[in-house]
Every structure is written in structure tokens, then in C-alpha cells.
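Re: the request from the purification team.
They wanted to know what the chain is likely to look like in 3D before they choose a buffer screen. I agreed to run a prediction and write the result into the notebook, where they can find it.
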Amino acid sequence: MEPTTDMAAVVRRLNRIEGQVRGITRMVEQDRHCIDVLTQVAAVSGALHEVALVLLRDHMSRCLIQAADAGGPAQEAKLQEAVDAIARLVRG
């Protein structure tokens, strides 16, 4: 089954996030206003959350469907894997 997500787009988004984090580092080094830094941290956090959702959707649309077709222990293992990933996202 072909990937449903454009992983090159995900990588580009992660590269932009990396640049944002470097920008936050510079802001801290320059002793910028705390609220401005926190605003940028929130933006990065939101961007990472969106990437995680894209990756989770891809996992669910590919891996879970394949596991459901296979049935048995593979199905249960992939379902648990998805549940664990969602729990990490909710806690994070």
C-alpha cells in the first residue's frame, strides 16, 4: 500500500520548526521579552502537534488497516500501538 502522507512535506515542516527553535534560542540569548519567547514556544509546540497528527493519521490509514486485514495478534498489537501513541499526544 502506498503512503497516504507526503513525507517530503512533513520533513519540510520539521525543518521549518527546527528554524523556529533556533530563533527561540536566539531570543533567549538576546534576553528578549519573556512573553514574546513564550509565544514562539507555543507556536512551535502547536506546529509539532500538527505534525504528530499528520503522522498518526498516516499510521492509522496504512498500518491499522493492514493489521485489520491480517487480523489476529498483529491487529491487536497495531491497535495498542496506536492507542499508546494517542495517549502520548494527549499527555504531551
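For the purification team: Residues 34-70 form the longest helix (37 residues).
Please add any questions underneath this entry.
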